[in-house]
Amino acid sequence: MAKTVFDKILDTTTGPKSYDWYQKQVKSMTTPGARSLINKGKATLKPKYGVMNLFAYDPKHKATLPFYDKFPLIMPLQAAKGGFYGLNFHYLPMAQRVLFLRQLSKYASDKNFDRNTRYNLTGGIENNRYFRLCIKHYLFNHVRSSFLNIPANEMAIGIFLPVARFKGGSFGNR
Hints:
Largest sheet: 6 strands, antiparallel
Mean pLDDT: 86
Order of helices and strands: HHHEEEEEHHEEHE
Structural class: alpha+beta
Distance between the termini: 32 Å
């Protein structure tokens, strides 16, 4: 299998790195588009709970939304009527994505933060201020791709990838 953007960056690291290091690595390379990442990576037909997911989405009420993300980068939370709830990191500025991901580490199944680490985002998370900014309800019949699964050891890369595609009003530099 060809190396993904995640593999290319992880191959250059020799241990824990700062979020600034990950951001510089992502900026230094030509990053493929969201659809290309989804098509080339480990993808599933349903969101994989406990890890980050990237997918294409076409909202049901897009005509009435001030703006929306065509390629959400989410941590799925739970099933909901016709779909699921997820935390879309693209609704946060970069610095807040980093802070939120750090805060979520307390929900990790272990401290290895590797391919086997899972996040159990239940109990108390709804009081987090970032949670309220990025919680969204996604409908399965409006999902337009498979779900790229991004494990814990690739999440620090994932939050910096320039794959958000907002449509509608102005959303600033997010």
